[in-house]
Specification:
Elements lengths: L4 H15 L6 E3 L1 H13 L3 H11 L3 H16 L4 E10 L6 H5 L6 E4 L3 H15 L17 E12 L5 E5 L11 E8 L5 E6 L2 E8 L5 E8 L5 H12 L5 E3 L6 E4 L2 E8 L6 E7 L1 E8 L30 E12 L3 E12 L9 E9 L4 E7 L5 E7 L13
Parallel strand pairs: 2-3, 13-17
Antiparallel strand pairs: 1-19, 2-4, 4-16, 5-6, 6-13, 7-8, 7-10, 8-9, 9-18, 11-12, 12-17, 14-15, 15-16, 18-19
Length: 398
């Protein structure tokens, strides 16, 4: 995937700022929002242009090009699909220069029949995410002149699958619950590490996928809020926080949910990373206008002309901006999707003879996750798990 470092930093920066506002179980994708905001910025003026630049982290002059680069780069990653859609009322005149900057085949028509238009947009969302997101997050109204949307879907299979097991936490928020646990062992101790951040220590566990998309599970110290834990994960991607890898951790309690010890074994065995985590499925809907300043939309919602002269000579203001997102983590892999839209208007035996080191990680209380493109370190999706899957026979991702 070819995406400039500046764009990766800009998108990850939006992920970190969005994470700082989260509370409770959720999933979101700044990668889904960013191209939409970038294309709006390309046609914006005045305060709206300046606010969108602040939200994007790049100048409006290069935003559209960066959005096209990002979408093309994501589309080149195996297992990842992206799409951009624009629908306008037949009578809305658009600037040729702005439309020319959109991917081919992007532009559709709003017929004025709200029922038919809603159905068409829902079909687009479902098709572009392989059925993971079934409806367009914004609803077309009789006054809607324009809808600009992005879709992102990613699927990856673990290079080494987990084994499904029974997990019953003995303390913490999940005490007494019977959960669908996932367990595996590995000789690669450095798949886990402990980050030293200004807010406390965060354990990061990398689960590698077969499409160059990995999932980083993040467990902070007890009491650390989601925003700080997810922000720490973004800081690790940016290499701003020092990380002690699993092979260099001290014996004893080495980090949140992480212990290092020596165990007697019946046969010689190399050092082992032992991982137990719950399976999870998270869905969320986000109204971006609840925090319009975060997304550069504070002025864009005001019903005054002059916001987007580079898009259309017809005065436009933002009437709705939403994202629907989903993430599933199971024994065999991970899948996530997001549609973002802006509308305008883990017996007794003989005494063992050998000693072997084991690094054991147990995620048995709320934790965060980042789906990360391995080579660019771009965060594709982020979330916080508070309600993991209950224990049952079989899993949900096959």
């Amino acid at each position: 995937m070819r995406v400039t470092g500046a764009t990766v930093r800009a998108v990850n920066g939006l992920t970190a700022r969005w994470a700082a506002t989260t509370n409770g179980g959720t999933v979101f994708s700044a990668v889904g929002v960013w191209p939409v905001l970038a294309l709006l910025a390309d046609g914006a003026a005045g305060a709206v242009r300046a606010e969108l630049e602040d939200a994007l982290g790049v100048s409006a002059g290069r935003a559209a090009g960066a959005a096209r680069e990002l979408l093309a780069g994501l589309g080149s990653v195996r297992g990842t699909e992206t799409a951009l859609g624009l629908w306008t009322r037949r009578t809305l005149e658009l600037r040729d220069a702005w439309v020319a900057g959109l991917p081919t085949g992007t532009h559709g028509v709003l017929t004025g029949d709200t029922g038919a238009d809603r159905e068409a947009l829902d079909v687009w969302a479902k098709r572009r995410t392989g059925g993971l997101i079934e409806r367009m997050p914004v609803r077309v109204t009789p006054d809607t002149d324009l809808v600009l949307a992005s879709a992102l879907a990613l699927r990856t299979r673990w290079l080494r699958p987990f084994r499904e097991t029974y997990l019953a936490p003995e303390s913490g928020p999940w005490e007494g619950r019977e959960l669908l646990g996932l367990h595996r062992e590995s000789a690669l101790l450095d798949r886990v590490g402990v980050a030293d951040t200004p807010h406390g220590h965060v354990t990061e566990l990398k689960v590698l996928g077969d499409t160059a998309v990995d999932v980083h599970l993040l467990l902070g110290e007890e009491g650390m809020p989601p925003g700080q834990v997810l922000g720490a994960g973004i800081g690790v991607l940016a290499r701003t926080h020092p990380v002690t890898p699993g092979s260099r951790l001290p014996y004893g309690e080495a980090g949140p949910g992480l212990g290092v010890g020596r165990e007697r074994t019946g046969t010689p065995r190399p050092p082992t990373l032992d991982v137990t985590t719950p399976a999870y499925a998270v869905t969320a809907g986000h109204d971006l206008l609840e925090r319009p300043e975060l997304f550069g939309l504070a002025s864009a919602v005001r019903a005054v002309p002059g916001h987007f002269p580079g898009i259309s000579p017809h005065p436009l203001c933002v009437e709705a901006a939403r994202q629907s997102a989903l993430a599933r983590f199971g024994a065999r892999g991970f899948e996530a999707a997001a549609v973002t839209a802006v509308g305008a208007i883990g017996c007794a035996a003989p005494r063992p003879l050998w000693l072997s080191t084991t690094v054991r990680a147990v995620l048995d209380r709320p934790f965060g996750f980042l789906a990360v493109h391995r080579h660019t370190r771009l965060a594709l999706a982020a979330g916080w798990v508070t309600d993991p899957e209950p224990y049952r026979e079989g899993g949900f991702l096959h």
